[in-house]
Amino acid sequence: MHSGEGSWHFRNAVSDLSTVAVCLLLPALLLGCSSVVPGRSATQSLLHQLSDTGRERFDSYARQLPCPCEVERTLGECMLDAVACESALRLGENLAYFVSQEAPPPVVARAMRDFVSAGTSEAQFALDDRPSRGSVDAPVQVVTFSDFYCPHCARFAKRLDGVLEQYGAELRTVFKHYPLSQHDHALQAARFAAAAQEQGKFWEMADAIFSEAGPSPVRLLELAESVGLDMQRLETDANGAKVAAIIAEDMREAELVDIPGTPAVYVNGVELGPDLSVERLRWVIETELWLHSKRVAVDEVLLAQSQGVVGGEAQPSGPEQYPVLSHFLVRLESEELKRFKNLTRGELCPCESISDSLDACLMRQDGGCKLSIQLAKQLMRGIVEGASDEELVLKLDAMVSEALQVHAFELSDAPYKGASPEQARVVVVEFADYRCPHCAAANRMVDELVEELDGVVVYFKHFPLDPFSVSANAAHAAVAAQAQGKFWEMHAMLFEHADALSDEDLLSYALDLGLELERFERELYSSETAYRVRAERAEGNAAGLRATPTFFVNGVYFDGSYSELVEYLRSVLASR
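RE: above sequence
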């Protein structure tokens, strides 16, 4: 549902979990196996609140869910790992919450799917000049996209005020505008509230609007006057460019992360999900405070190491040399850290346009690139697990070879947009499924991408996740429409109506697009069309696809978010 760092690859790993396939999550606890619940103290994690039965349920789920740090490991393995990422810890705490609520397996499956689909990395929002309550430096920041005419938003706003009182300086709440088009006066209310902020009375105006069920335009004016606003200035500001820009920016951000509706709540950039109860909100806030305490503790160790005074003995000032990895490397012993440095010095940096050792690459502020960071984490893990230098070098070489493998795709019949193939300096190939919500979001972003970046051509390839479902039928419809020169029109319609892809629906869309129906229907059910979709799916399988959407840049698999893709394309264009 959301963009985020390198999440497309993993998000769909559990996206097909359903009540039908929930048997994958049924208890499978092995006798004699140790618990995967990390042995953290009660002050660190909320997992201690689980009963013995709850811990067993948690174990069984965690052993079967994929880890967001890397898809090849389970969540249980990841949480025991010395270099577990925060996404895994967040996912574990979320799992613990639903286990604590004694949710049945289908509910747990759906909750984990939704959490992963929403993205486990932090979304970045513009918070300057946005109305907020609480300390700007609070470790937990709650951002809410809201509509003043949404009754759920009004109820959640009251709930959030109560939670803010409980946590005080540890919590900050930020309001973002997302007036829904189906609410006639929601945009006007948003303008009035934003204009009230210019007079220092946003919250008074917001509370007044929320206190009434959908006030009329006349009542909005009365409410503004009742909170003591300068009415002449209010009218000027409400119709001014600054207010319009703030609301437009908030709505653009909401669309980039593909919010499902209002209220959409993000705690430290991670979507809260559909459960907006006080219990759920408090659980997530406590999780974020625990993660914050872990960061503070590591920072203190790093500071002590940089001063050479950890445990009263001189320590190597190693971890702080690696900005992106310091919080992981601090967990290595002195000799392990020396070994890490020696091994990275002997490996080449895999990042494009960086000609240096892996060690020098990792010492950059950004860590070089996603692949170099993945290599470093694999190396740390191997060192902790006692692998030999030879085994580690072979593993790193295999990872680089797989990641940088250049794939050749058949593009002669593939539809494309952007630069002409003859003039393109960068070729992007996207594999997608019409029923995948992340693909729909990516489709909108691709339109923006080709408008912004000259010299980039983007080809589309079909990859229905279930080759025997309506997703495949939708792909057949796009191919049939392409035969009449209207691929992109059908493409947009299929994403827009992803929940209505029956044969009757597809014929209706063809009629709406002015296609010759007899020819469309013939192409829709032809063996040639079915063969082409199967062939493109086979191409994806051969290239190692496990999820959609998946992008390849000049034949090389791209593992990253949309924003990272744009930055990467910019760098590639600049180097050519």
